[in-house]
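Students often ask why inverse folding is considered easier than folding. One informal answer: many sequences map to the same fold, so there is more than one right answer. In these notes we will look at a single instance of the problem. The structure comes first.
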């Protein structure tokens, strides 16, 4: 468990972030906080400050907008992330990607492991790498363990797009960006992805840009 002296800088940092109100500034790629990994949460913020921080993460995620946000993305090196996905996509996209609505969830100290050997590759973006997307092959199904914001144990299997979200956000907590796992030949601006790579799967992009899919 962290000592009081270890807790103070993190709590002070969060209080400073929350002081201005509104969405928090999102840290962009290149900032070391995104690469250093995170400290396991064991009460550093206290219940009230944690609740306020979680609300701010949710508001920031909505404002961005995104479907997940990890604490390092707002400059806080704690093992905490939030996810939420209303999945407002056409039915063919939802079916192809396994994208189903996910309620708001807080992930505290999450870790994941693959379930089976299945992998799925799709375009993916990140709020800390604005303006671009790339194809990332990820586990199709994962088991996530951790806790929620109240300290209740979480042990759940995620499949399809929800599995992608929890892998992406948990990776942030380990200092890993989606580009570390991406097929870099697929890297596309958001505009190009929206106008040229419109199929629910990246098969056409793989053929034309010259990369393999799993």
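Output (designed amino acids):
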């Amino acid at each position: 468990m962290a000592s009081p002296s270890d807790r103070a800088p993190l709590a002070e940092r969060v209080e400073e972030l929350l002081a201005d109100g509104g969405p928090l500034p999102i840290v962009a790629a290149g900032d070391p906080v995104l690469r250093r990994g995170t400290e396991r949460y064991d009460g550093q913020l206290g219940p009230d400050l944690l609740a306020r921080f979680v609300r701010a993460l949710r508001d920031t995620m909505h404002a961005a907008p995104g479907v997940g946000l990890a604490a390092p993305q707002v400059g806080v090196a704690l093992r905490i992330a939030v996810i939420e996905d209303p999945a407002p996509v056409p039915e063919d996209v939802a079916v192809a990607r396994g994208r189903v609505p996910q309620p708001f969830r807080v992930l505290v100290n999450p870790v994941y492991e693959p379930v089976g050997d299945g992998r799925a590759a799709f375009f993916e973006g990140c709020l800390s790498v604005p303006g671009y997307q790339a194809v990332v092959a990820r586990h199709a199904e994962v088991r996530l363990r951790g806790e929620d914001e109240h300290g209740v144990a979480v042990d759940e299997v995620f499949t399809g797009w929800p599995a992608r979200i929890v892998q992406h956000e948990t990776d942030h907590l380990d200092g890993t960006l989606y580009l570390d796992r991406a097929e870099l030949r697929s890297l596309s601006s958001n505009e190009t992805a929206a106008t040229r790579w419109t199929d629910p799967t990246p098969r056409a992009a793989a053929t034309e840009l010259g990369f393999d899919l799993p």
